[in-house]
Specification:
Blueprint (H helix, E strand, L loop, with lengths): L10 E5 L5 H11 L3 E6 L6 H9 L3 E6 L5 H14 L3 E6 L14 H29 L3 E7 L10 H21 L5 E7 L6 H6 L1 H4 L10 H13 L8 E4 L7
Parallel strand pairs: 1-2, 1-4, 2-3, 4-5, 5-6, 6-7
């Protein structure tokens, strides 16, 4: 039987698969027939998302891994490629939003925010890019934030890390694009429909009824669109924000 008769199922790796955006992105790719591989530091926290994808008829697997540790990242990417198939899309979705006055910020926490929001993006992108370049295809999609473009008061650590992640994405796009790998950066500018927003900012969450906060499923639709763009019309940066959001 020919190879064409037994096509390999592509894999979507979502690093930082939280309960909202990351899980929604994984579910979106699974709905399109991709094997969704979800990672975060605690594998137990991934089970609800994995179960939901499987209940909907998709394929999903959860992995506990520290995205800041080079050895763990390399081992995880190798394991996924060996057990499931080629990683066709990497979504780097770690946030690390921890506001703090610069007067009270510690060197340890500042460095940790950078490790999570930027350095981990480099490690994961490098490991996946090595395989994508060899195959001449693939997508690497980075989740940015308002802080990627504007450093607000009390967000020195987060803004610094997110600015750096955007610069990393720009550099990778210019290097890897001509080699067949689509690199894009998504600026998610606004509150997202999450338990954190619901419990901490009820007045903001009330805007949900007016489409005033971002729906994770709608964010996920845009990631799928980016991945499926023809290479003669690739987007590098995409801004997503509710129609009533100030910017």
């Amino acid at each position: 039987m020919s190879a064409a008769a037994n096509p390999v199922t592509p894999v979507a790796l979502v690093v930082g698969a939280g309960d909202a955006t990351g899980s929604a992105i994984a579910a979106r790719f699974a709905r399109e027939g991709y094997i969704a591989c979800l990672t975060r530091r605690s594998a137990d926290k991934l089970q609800p998302a994995v179960d939901a994808i499987r209940a909907a008829g998709g394929q999903a697997f959860g992995y506990g891994s520290d995205a800041r540790q080079e050895d763990e990242v390399a081992a995880l990417v190798e394991r996924i490629e060996n057990e499931h198939g080629p990683i066709e899309v990497l979504v780097f979705n770690i946030g690390a939003n921890a506001p703090c006055s610069v007067l009270d910020e510690t060197a340890r926490k500042y460095f940790k925010v950078w490790e999570m929001a930027c350095f981990a993006g480099f490690l994961n992108a490098r490991e996946v890019a090595r395989r994508m370049v060899a195959r001449g295809r693939g997508s690497i999609l980075f989740t940015g934030a308002t802080a990627s473009l504007r450093g607000g008061a009390n967000f020195a650590a987060f803004a610094g890390a997110k600015h750096a992640l955007r610069a990393l994405a720009q550099s990778l796009a210019r290097e890897l694009g001509p080699r067949g790998v689509h690199v894009a950066h998504v600026v998610v500018d606004g509150a997202i429909d999450t338990e954190f927003i619901r419990s901490r900012f009820p007045e903001r969450y009330a805007l949900k009824e007016q489409d005033g906060i971002l729906d994770p499923a709608h964010i996920a639709d845009n990631y799928w669109h980016l991945h499926r763009q023809p290479r003669d019309a690739w987007t590098f940066e995409l801004d997503l924000r509710p129609y009533m959001e100030r910017w």
